[in-house]
Design a protein that fits this description.
With about 750 residues, the chain is of the alpha/beta class. The chain has five domains: about 1-80; about 85-185; about 190-455, no CATH class; about 460-500, no CATH class; about 505-750, Metallo-beta-lactamase, Chain A, CATH 3.60.15.10. About 45% of the residues lie in helices and about 15% in strands. It contains 29 helices and 25 strands. The strands form five sheets. An eight-stranded mixed beta sheet has the order 16-15-14-11-10-9-24-25. It has a seven-stranded mixed beta sheet with strand order 17-18-19-20-21-22-23. Strands 1-2-4-6-5 form a five-stranded mixed barrel. Strand 12 (about 535) and strand 13 (about 540) form a beta hairpin. Helix 2 (about 30-50) packs antiparallel against helix 3, helix 8 packs across helix 15 and helix 15 (about 395-420) runs antiparallel to helix 16. One of its GO terms (biological process) is establishment of competence for transformation. InterPro entries: ComA-like_MBL (IPR035681), ComEC_N (IPR004477), Competence_ComEC/Rec2 (IPR004797), Competence_DNA_uptake (IPR052159), DUF4131 (IPR025405), Metallo-B-lactamas (IPR001279), RibonucZ/Hydroxyglut_hydro (IPR036866). Its main location: membrane. This is DNA internalization-related competence protein ComEC/Rec2.
């Protein structure tokens, strides 16, 4: 009977995973009609299954019901993006996060008679006030809300998926605000007290991050070091830290139990005490999604333990993953959840197929070797997820984690927990925090001594990184001896991306989605040429954040860069790109000593493509937009005209001097669709079939102009822009140019769509 119950729980968990899995690849969310239809089919399956195949019918009905649950949860997650962004919203909010003294996130509580349960989170675009602000306060605010919208490029950070996974689909600007309550939350009070105690400690920011999950103040250099050494997971409060808190709670309960009498000694009290301390630590960490998911998994594990049955590790994992996803289906889109679940699955697989056999060794050898065995397994089996999510792996992670994991797990975090439990005794709490600070000093001293170990990978590496999983199985099954053909076949299949020819026939032009600005990549024979380098902003630029990661993920090295003109939204990433690829040659009309010239009449060839410059003439004395280097790229059959930010005056002069030479199949829309460009004369002379524009959805200049868009459509020129379509890729071959966009063809997913109202721009 016990086995039957265990099997049914496992079956239900599998049904939950199967039912929610489509959320990963659905291009759009089914509407009410589909949901009603699936529920009707589920009812039929359940009814027919009672006399045909009871278990199969019930499981199928459960899968369909869970699928409907996941779709409804997705609709609920997106509801604020459609319902709350049409008009300014006056609402009572709770401050949830500050950064550098500015309000960065609030939670909507209610608006008039409408109460929000749960309250949607809103990312605030920087709000300052003369009044004291802290998390936990309640304010009455008038907000102009807009739905989440992110730049979408292959291999780039998927901010829309990240926002949907965390329930943050709104961003807003504060129109007016008045404080309702002045008191801060209890957590903020504990944090302020801890900050005061750690004021003189060197690693204060890292201590606060480990205690309360607030990592905004951790220096960028430290974050980079943690990434390069593969130890960033230790500084994010998740399963490891919640588990440590539970372990401390269990230990404290066991120490107290002897004082309660023999009758009170049992295993349930320590289990409940561990849950209580873990729950308290989750609250201290701000109840961030990773911590909440870890807490939920711990509760499920505790319930399984309280059942009195001996559960296999895989069943516990399956129940925990299914329970987390059923409670929060959007967690399926979270990279941190996939990493955590993958890490536990990897450990279960590793110890099942490659168990540690050194139990009979002396104690001084057993634990170091056991830790090496554990780190080897987790390091190898997490390679596919690391390559897919981070686009790189740390070559020093194995060595770094051998030191960092035991030090942080057994010394730093327990000392921080001890300090938090003794805050009422400041001198004692400070002593614990001082020792934790010294442990961090030792840790970062050792991490800094390691060589730079971050290895950038391209998309081909993901399949190759699956080899350790197959390798372990083949090794244990002696596949190289008994199945040599199968073993060689699997190795050849996994290595296919490395030895297959990467160059595609024809050539491609990629307009990257960089917001306001311009960055175009021309690709031919596995080589790349850039036209403009995007924008820059305080603390970063498009070259470093978007263009370089995209090129690396595609396995491309830029050989040349054509800079249209000097404005920051076109030249902002130039310095970063040249620092990464110093051999890249630059061509422009700026007259810089290290730039090759770009004047009207110049021609050259690159990768069997013909380049001709149609503007500006050498005698041109203008600056800014009208000095844009206009280049036509042609393969002899098809062509594209790249225009930068050229405006009316230069357009008309270029049309008069160049005439039919401007004819092209594709036109890069000048000046982002501004009404000062795209004159009828230019469109008539170029006569393109396609027009592609680099735009930001929430442009301060409200681009493109409605008049300009209408002008293109009146001439039957197909219009595509990055604000609407994300990355745009054109493939030129023998046939007509073929256009694909990120939202519609490259990676169409329901969480990538355009949320909220849909005018030309807002």
């Amino acid at each position: 009977m016990k086995k039957e119950v265990a099997v049914s729980v496992t079956g239900v968990s599998l049904c939950v995973l199967i039912g929610l899995a489509p959320l990963l690849w659905l291009p759009s969310l089914p509407g009410p009609g589909w949901i009603y239809g699936l529920m009707a089919i589920a009812g039929c399956c359940a009814g027919c299954g009672t006399w045909l195949a009871p278990r199969a019918g019930g499981y199928l009905a459960l899968v369909l019901c869970v699928a409907c649950w996941g779709v409804l949860a997705a609709h609920a997650a997106l509801w604020p993006a459609y319902a709350l962004t049409k008009h300014p919203l006056e609402a009572e909010v709770s401050v949830t996060r500050l950064e550098a003294g500015q309000v960065r996130q609030v939670q909507l509580l209610h608006s008039g008679l409408r109460w929000f349960t749960p309250g949607p989170m809103v990312r605030i675009q920087g709000f300052t006030t003369d009044e004291t602000v802290c998390p936990g306060q309640r304010w009455r605010m008038t907000l102009r809300l807009s739905p989440i919208h992110a730049r979408l490029n292959q291999g780039g950070f998927d901010a829309q998926r990240y926002g949907v996974a965390r329930g943050e689909v709104l961003r807003g600007r504060v129109v007016s605000a008045s404080r309702i309550t002045a008191g801060c939350g209890a957590r903020e009070g504990l944090m302020a007290h801890t900050r005061a105690l750690t004021q003189g400690l060197v690693w204060q920011e890292t201590l606060i991050a480990l205690a309360f999950g607030e990592r905004a103040e951790v220096a960028a250099e430290i974050k980079t070091l943690l990434r390069d050494t593969g130890t960033a997971h230790l500084m994010a409060i998740s399963g490891l830290h919640i588990g440590l808190a539970a372990g401390v709670g269990w230990l404290l309960a066991r120490l107290v139990q002897p004082l309660l009498g023999t009758v009170r000694i049992g295993w349930r009290f320590p289990l409940l005490a561990s849950l209580l301390l873990a729950l308290s630590y989750t609250w201290l960490a701000g109840a961030q999604p990773p911590a909440l998911r870890s807490m939920w998994a711990l509760i499920i594990w505790a319930l399984l333990r309280l059942s009195g049955r001996d559960w296999h590790g895989w069943r516990v994992w399956l129940c925990c993953v299914a329970g987390i996803l059923f409670a929060d289906p959007m967690a399926l889109l979270s990279d941190s959840f996939l990493l955590s679940a993958g890490a536990v699955a990897g450990l279960l697989f590793w110890y099942q197929w490659m168990p540690f056999t050194g139990q009979r060794l002396p104690l001084l050898l057993r634990y170091p070797l056991g830790l090496c065995h554990l780190q080897l397994g987790i390091g190898l089996l997490l390679l596919p997820l690391q390559a897919a999510i981070f686009h790189g792996v740390s070559l020093t992670a194995w060595v770094a984690n051998l030191l960092a994991v035991p030090l942080v797990s057994l010394v730093t975090v327990p000392l921080i927990l001890a300090a938090l439990l003794t805050l009422a005794i400041p001198s004692l709490a400070y002593g614990f925090l001082w020792m934790a600070d010294r442990s961090l000093a030792a840790l970062f001293y050792c991490l800094n001594a390691l060589p730079a170990g971050w290895l950038e990978l391209d998309a081909r590496a993901v399949a190759v990184m699956l080899f350790p999983w197959f390798g372990v199985v083949l090794w244990r099954l002696w596949g190289w001896r008994y199945f040599p053909g199968l073993t060689l076949g699997i190795l050849a299949l996994l290595g296919t991306p490395l030895w297959r020819q990467t160059a595609q026939p024809g050539w491609q032009v990629h307009m990257l989605d960089i917001g306001h600005g311009l960055a175009i990549v021309v690709e031919r024979n596995g080589r790349a040429l850039l036209y403009d380098s995007g924008n820059s902003w305080p603390g970063g630029d498009a070259g470093q954040r978007i263009i370089a990661p995209w090129l690396r993920w595609q396995g491309l090295v830029p050989q040349r860069l054509i800079l249209s003109h000097e404005h920051l939204d076109h030249s902002g990433g130039l310095a970063s790109l040249r620092a990464i690829w110093p051999m890249m040659r630059v061509r422009s009309s700026l007259g810089e000593k290290d730039h090759m010239p770009c004047w009207q009449g110049m021609r050259w060839r690159w990768q069997e493509l013909d380049f001709s410059v149609h503007w500006p003439p050498r005698s041109w004395r203008g600056v800014g937009n009208n000095r844009s280097c206009v280049v036509k790229i042609s393969d002899g059959r098809h062509s594209i005209l790249l225009t930068g930010d050229i405006e009316n005056v230069a357009e008309q002069a270029m049309v008069r001097s160049q005439g039919k030479a401007l004819r092209a199949d594709v036109l890069q829309v000048p000046h982002h669709g501004s009404r000062t460009s795209s004159t009828p004369a230019l469109l008539r002379q170029v006569n393109p079939e396609l027009a592609i524009a680099s735009l930001a959805r929430y442009s301060a200049w409200r681009l493109p102009s409605v008049v300009v868009v209408r002008r293109y459509r009146q001439r039957n020129i197909a219009w595509y822009d990055t604000a609407r379509h994300g990355q745009i890729t054109l493939r030129f071959g023998e046939e007509k140019p073929r256009l694909t966009s990120f939202r519609a063809q490259i990676l169409p997913r329901w969480y990538h769509q355009w949320f909220g109202v849909a005018p030309v721009n807002r």
